[in-house]
Amino acid sequence: MKVQCVICDRIDVLSDDLPLAKKLRNRLIHTYMCPVCHDRIEIKTNERLATGKFIFYKTSKLIENDF
Q: Is the overall model pTM greater than 0.70, yes or no?
């Protein structure tokens, strides 16, 4: 399966049996990011978190009884 990175437009080939390939094929909302871009974003995010000025908001799950 051919996939294209959403950031750098690099084209990679994934095996059809990989779980990532199945996820991309069955759920069209998911996008592919190449390992180089993924690692670069991870490093930059960790650097921002280390400064203390970056606030990382985690989403909370809704409780069914709130309505």
A: no
